[in-house]
Amino acid sequence: MTTPKHYQALSQEFQRIYHFQHLQALGDWDQATMMPMGGSHGRAEAMAELAVHIHQLKTAPLLLELLDCADSEPLSPSQRANLTEMRYQTLQANALPSALVQAKTQLTYQCEHAWRDQRKNNDWQGFAPNLTAVIDLVREEAQILGEAQGLSPYDALLNKFEPGTQACQIEQVFNEVKTWLPDLIKQVQQHQASRPHLTIPASSVDKQQALSLDVMSLLGFDFNQGRLDVSSHPFSGGVPGDQRITTRYEEQDFLSALFSTIHETGHARYEQGLPLEWRGQPAGQARSMAIHESQSLFFEMQLARGKGLLSPLTAKVNQHLGTQFTATQLEHLTTQVTPGLIRVDADEVTYPCHIMLRFDAEKALVDGSLSVADLPDFWDNAMQSLLGLSTKDNDRNGCMQDIHWPVGELGYFPSYTLGAMYAAQLRGAIEAQLGNIDQLVSDGKLNRVFEWLQHNIWSKGSLLTTNELITAATGESLNPQHFKRHLFNRYL
Amino acid sequence: MTTPKHYQALSQEFQRIYHFQHLQALGDWDQATMMPMGGSHGRAEAMAELAVHIHQLKTAPLLLELLDCADSEPLSPSQRANLTEMRYQTLQANALPSALVQAKTQLTYQCEHAWRDQRKNNDWQGFAPNLTAVIDLVREEAQILGEAQGLSPYDALLNKFEPGTQACQIEQVFNEVKTWLPDLIKQVQQHQASRPHLTIPASSVDKQQALSLDVMSLLGFDFNQGRLDVSSHPFSGGVPGDQRITTRYEEQDFLSALFSTIHETGHARYEQGLPLEWRGQPAGQARSMAIHESQSLFFEMQLARGKGLLSPLTAKVNQHLGTQFTATQLEHLTTQVTPGLIRVDADEVTYPCHIMLRFDAEKALVDGSLSVADLPDFWDNAMQSLLGLSTKDNDRNGCMQDIHWPVGELGYFPSYTLGAMYAAQLRGAIEAQLGNIDQLVSDGKLNRVFEWLQHNIWSKGSLLTTNELITAATGESLNPQHFKRHLFNRYL
Ligand SMILES: [Zn+2]
Ligand SMILES: [Zn+2]
Questions:
Q1: Signal peptide span per the entry (chains A, B) (predicted)?
Q2: pLDDT tens across A104-129, in order?
């Protein structure tokens, strides 16, 4: 077997790109957690220079030549999977003319900037023309990306975040969900109507921080390879060997920081568990946004809101905050279902409604069947039918609430609900193989759950496609019935 | 006047280099303050990649061509100064063959690594061959750098840190100092013998940190353009618009963190005060290591140990730490003169002895008149003659104490004492123009001192040579008499 020298050369190039992406991750994290305001200008310039450099590396003609040569080399299945990912990343970087990339960067920067005030002021008339311009450009982007990959325009956007996933599959899944979810929500509300009202006592940031760190340890976060800090919006950043997660403490609501820490810990453990021998290579990276979200939601929803983990969690809350909650009280507080207008505040049951609405809207915006002018009515109708709420003359809390569209990120929203579904499906597989998860946790065998995830998801990186990964782990493709069963089990 | 288009193109190239240096500064700071141990490997790889990239940018053939073309363009005096700095940096980057640079990186990495244990174990026999190999390579480096600039080998090393300074000038200055300093040290010790003994109460890290931050505000540190953190060795890092300084808290000795914070604040204000209109250009950078140290030592020695600032400083100490010091007590604690073996623990008066010894030694090591084998005897003799102390069989606290030589940084040591001398000379100029500094501070006019430094030093960046800068600010070249007068005034 000859040495695959072109493949080796490619690996080196991607390793180099990865080193600069390491610096990008550091710059982003520092900007959100440590950087004083006065550092913004210099940092923005440095990060822009870095982005240009990474783009140059990814679009170097040498890379395309090497890709073609490597294709005919004798490669192991893993090397071939890596080559596929390399080709995909190269295609994504090369597909768009740089004039379009620059125009989008400028336009979305302006749109986002104006949106921050326009949203506050419920200024739809001001926002609509900006959003129209962004959507027009995104349509152009989708068209070009689609042609390069033989995909429809919207599928091309979807594939930026979920390679291999098509809108028609998601439609099928979501259409089925729409047949039972609105009804389930009503039933759950009736079911929870008799719950006693609980108040949450205030707790200091210091105590909440100690609680967060303690819970991260419980969940196996490796502090030798990461840290917890504070930012205005919680996120997980850094690199696989150095995960930087953040939270935000609200004195009046310790559950906010606690559960966002648990969520980000799920993201971080995925990154910390990515295959070390593939670090720096495309095949060593996290599979997709939905798989990433499946891990954070597995931690936040499947594990932390389950009876097994709620018990030690309640003990830690009481210990650090001096409260006297029972596990049942904490369960009630964290499983309360209340239809609302705001996606990021939504509970586990109503959350998919927010996503399905956005999925329908952005598909229609991209294929031109919905104009930006008609978006408020569309939103109001969908909210009425899904959650029984109106957003009439309240666009601030309707179609203007998210940052995704102002910054031109269409195709991202489905990841959230796909992630929730994958999480439920993974739970099903774990329970089939290891037994009831709450029981495992109660028996002190939480680690067996993590080992399963390490073996079946984390260690696989991008060596398998999303569908291969989920099929290998659970024995079937995406099957939303697990999510349905989970919601019915937990909430009725 | 035609547009100097080659000069403009050069400026853009150096701006680009600066953006990557921004990322380098961030990576270094994060590594020392925030990064968990497990992140080391990935960070080291990313930083090495970045260093290679910066070196490539600095040695691009295009740069040399542009430098030649720009030379004949009509430039303003400031642009010409910038061009001189560009040429200097390019020369430094191009002079050394990359094989030598790589060999030095590897060799010094190994030497430093082994040194950490060898120093602990007082293992001179183990350390000597490693140091010999490093010195041999540094001699080669010095030879090449010297030939490229028409300088003697040692002057070439000196010029890496102090462009334009020659060993013969320093020799002249140091030889004069040797005629009076050993005697002064004895006199000061007698003078201080009757001082009452004071004990330092323990203080918590939190209180010391609040004190540090408060004192930084008093000294005009701009927290919108910087921050204070903790590292195992205090340093100032970051970029001019975002200064990251660090300190280290010892519960048993609050003076350590307090005065290292004041020292680093001096470095940071210099950086924060560099000319905004030249930011990112070689002419906009700090002039030299000695000028940098002159600012930190001006803050730490001239200002903070002076009667003017000691009074508000004492108030803040008492306020934050709950102590009851008088200003005189704090003065006694911070001006105690005690000959010792360790440079970094030395007081203001004995410090130059440590530097003069190292300057003589490294000159002789580079010109071959001193062999590594003879270094311990050389050190012992010099310590005996300068401070009356022996390092016989105590190399750990003698010639093995500093990290500089194991990492191949010869030519750096003189900067410390040149900095102390420049600081005293600047004080002389300020007092000639504005009146007694202690009086100014007592009168609430500390800001006038900072304005003078801003106008005469900080805002000049590298637009002037070191000699031009000091002459413009003080009316004369380096004149060690100011330092002598300062020591006699303060300590006798
Ligand atoms: Zn998430
Ligand atoms: Zn210093």
A1: none
A2: 988 998 999 899 999 999 999 999 99
